[in-house]
Structure prediction request, 85 residues.
Amino acid sequence: MTGKRDLDLPQLFAALEVSDIAAINGIASLANILRKRGLLTVAEASALHQSMSLPLSLPRHADNLAVQELQLHLDELFAHIVAPD
Prediction:
């Protein structure tokens, strides 16, 4: 970092969204590696997907397009993880 700067609200929201996506990608990547090595079953991967999806599926987020996009991204990642080899 080059110094302390005040971030505005859109920048903070963008940073939160990017960090959420990075975390989701990292968890999915790790799950995929474990799955390929036989250390994570389909049932366990599905349970992980479900637990990560739960906060995104709360009714208060039903109309939030950003949350819907995150859920779609998560669904697509885990579809590949649980797909048959």
In short: Residues 23 and 29 are 10 Å apart (CA to CA). DSSP finds three helices and no strands in the chain. The two ends are 43 Å apart (CA to CA).
